[in-house]
Specification:
The structure is a single chain. The chain is α+β, with helices and mostly antiparallel strands. It has 2 domains: 345 residues, no CATH class; 38 residues, no CATH class. It is 33% helix and 12% strand. It has 13 helices and 13 strands. A hairpin with a 3-residue loop joins strand 4 and strand 5. Helix 1 crosses helix 11 and helix 2 runs parallel beside helix 11. Bound molecules: iron/sulfur cluster (SF4) (2 copies). One iron/sulfur cluster (SF4) binds next to helix 11 and helix 12. One iron/sulfur cluster binds next to helix 9 and helix 10.
């Protein structure tokens, strides 16, 4: 893998059309709109009804990869996710915005430590609590949801993060996000769309919850405010891009150099003085322009085969940033019919397997006669494993190394 220290810094990692972009309400997420269409109820989990029905049908009919023991493993993996915060609901269960156990003598007395040191301490703590990657960025209000299901999310000029009858209140001085990525087991993801791939996501959610809650308590213990978030409160992917964890791919997910898109994301928002990381550029948009593997393997036809643009393709998209938009409702309808979440797009993405993108740009050494080198090489890697870079373009020495970055 290219060391992060040698990667280019991206000056403008997210192109925004200011005339089009508006903050996004959670109520437009497919999880909510699909659940509402199915049941007439507004909530995070109503879309699950049809998915559970099909999960049980397939289990009872004895389908491979969907047996009772497969589902049991998934339920076990998801337990802490459900106990901690149910994928992410603001100020809910253990995702509380107030200290859980830290005494007031600590929460009211901020430690006197310089931001660079606090940043390094915070990253070490995040890794201790289970994160595989950590980055820090400014919390732009653009990425904060306008509302959760039942209440708006508003900024206040002072005070502490709080919740009233009408709104969640975030003080403007809570202006930093610590973004954490949690790797998913690529061998489990390979089983997609069977339940085993869903289990990789479930254990990822449980790990996210543990780390977000623990890191928030740590920060409160240092005397600062902390809002632990899973999927809730703010969009994770733009924050992760700005925190330097990776770039957005055609499949609509963050691609990290270390784990590709086989990650889950959580974040902690805070007012602690911290140093920011820089967004990275390791060639993802250029690569995706010549690779369609996720689009070809998507069972619901949700992934674009066109060029990135500013216009969303369904009611769930938030137009105004340049990217490949995903038809989120179609995707979720497939999950429901499948009786489990799907990760086909993650499974086939070459970066999930530790693909070293920059090798693709050594085109002058490549002797491929037909087709696009980037694309052909991608298929070769999927089929044969990894081509050792110093034999690139000659008789390829194929290796199957252990997963990078673990
Ligand atoms: S999760 Fe499955 S259905 Fe959804 S976009 Fe990816 S491949 Fe398509
Ligand atoms: S499968 Fe190919 S096109 Fe899709 S996100 Fe991965 S690299 Fe990009």
């Amino acid at each position: 893998m290219i060391p992060r220290s040698e990667m280019k810094i991206h000056k403008n990692p997210i192109e925004i059309n200011k005339d089009m972009y508006e903050r996004y309400p959670v109520t437009r997420q497919a999880f909510i709109t699909v659940g509402y269409k199915d049941t007439g109820e507004m909530g995070h989990n109503f879309f699950l009804g049809k998915m559970m029905e099909n999960m049980l049908k397939k289990m009872i009919s004895g389908e491979k990869g969907r047996l009772q023991e497969d589902n049991a493993l998934d339920f076990g993996a998801n337990t802490l996710n459900l106990l901690i915060g149910q994928y992410g609901v603001p100020n809910f269960q253990f995702l509380q915005w107030k200290p859980l156990f830290i005494p007031e003598e600590m929460t009211k007395n901020p430690v006197k430590i310089e931001p660079d040191q606090l940043s390094s301490m915070t990253k070490k703590a995040a890794v201790l609590y289970g994160a595989d990657l950590v980055g820090i960025t400014k919390l732009k209000p653009d990425w904060v949801y306008t509302r959760d299901v039942f209440k708006s999310i508003e900024f206040t000029d002072g005070g502490e993060a709080d919740e009233t009858e009408e709104a969640y209140l975030i003080p403007r001085r809570v202006d930093k996000a610590i973004v954490m990525a949690f790797s998913m087991d690529d061998r489990m993801i390979d089983h997609s769309p069977e339940v085993m791939a869903s289990t990789a996501a479930s254990i990822g959610y449980s790990r996210m919850g543990i780390a977000a809650v623990s890191l928030a308590e740590y920060i409160r213990g240092l005397g600062y405010q902390a809002i632990p978030c899973m999927n809730d409160t703010a969009l994770s992917i733009p924050l992760a891009i700005e925190a330097g964890l990776g770039q957005l791919g055609r499949l609509g997910l963050l691609i990290t150099p270390e784990f590709g898109p086989a990650i889950r994301l959580a974040k902690v928002l805070t007012d602690m003085p911290l140093e920011f990381d820089q967004p990275i550029d390791f060639g993802i948009p250029e690569f995706c322009k010549n690779c369609y593997l996720c689009e070809q393997h998507c069972p619901s036809g949700s992934i674009s085969n066109g060029e990135p643009g500013f216009e969303g393709v369904c009611e769930n998209n938030n137009s105004g940033t340049k990217k490949w938009y995903i038809n989120a409702e179609r995707c979720l309808r497939f999950w429901q019919a499948n009786g489990a979440s799907c990760s086909n797009c993650i499974a086939v993405c070459p970066f999930t397997k530790g693909f070293e993108s920059m090798q693709c740009f050594e085109c002058e050494k490549c002797e491929t006669q037909t087709g696009c080198e980037l694309q052909v090489n991608t298929h070769l890697r999927i089929k044969y494993g990894y081509l050792k870079s110093d034999t690139w373009g000659n008789t390829p020495e194929v290796i199957r190394p252990a997963r990078k970055g673990l």
